[in-house]
């Protein structure tokens, strides 16, 4: 009887250890799979921008994008291309800029970006004869490629 009780306790202890080990292993696997994309410096990334673009200003927006942003972006290390979209119902633009890596994109000095943005806004304000940039930034973020 004592032997049976002893074996039963040993079996329970073994079973608890096995379950704990499997649980810990799964937690560690989930942590590895959920590592931040910030740690991956060589991965393709897409910059996502959403702007409010009224229908009456759409042509001016497209023209300024092509005349000012496109040439500057093309000169940047890591720039792979971009796509422009416009949602008529929402009067919103979606700009997707493809970068070879996040580090190359983020290495661009913000002062350079601000100079180009100022040039863009000046061009738009002149073309529309307004005193403020009519294209409000709604959202900016990034999209990481999923395997």
List keywords for this structure.
single chain; 147 residues; alpha+beta; Alpha-Beta Plaits; 4-stranded antiparallel sheet; 4 helices; elongated
Structure, explained:
It is built from four helices and four strands; from the N terminus they run αβαββααβ. The chain is α+β, with helices and mostly antiparallel strands and 147 residues long. The protein has two domains: 2-34; 41-144, Alpha-Beta Plaits (2-Layer Sandwich). A four-stranded antiparallel sheet has the order 2-3-1-4. A hairpin with a 4-residue loop joins strand 2 (79-87) and strand 3 (92-99). It is elongated and about 95 Å long.
Give me a quick take on this structure.
This protein is an alpha+beta fold.
Can you lay out the helices and strands and say which pair or pack?
Elements: H1 2-33, E1 45-52, H2 58-74, E2 79-87, E3 92-99, H3 102-106, H4 110-128, E4 137-144
Antiparallel strand pairs: 1-3, 1-4, 2-3
Helix pairs in contact: 2-4
Tell me the domain tally: 2
Strand order of the largest sheet: 2-3-1-4
Total number of beta strands:
4
Radius of gyration: 27 Å
CATH topology of the largest domain: Alpha-Beta Plaits
Order of helices and strands: HEHEEHHE
Task: Tell me the fraction of residues in β-strands, as a range.
Answer: 15-25%
Task: Determine and state the CATH class of the largest domain.
Answer: Alpha Beta
Indicate the CATH architecture of the largest domain. 2-Layer Sandwich
Class per helix and strand makeup: alpha+beta
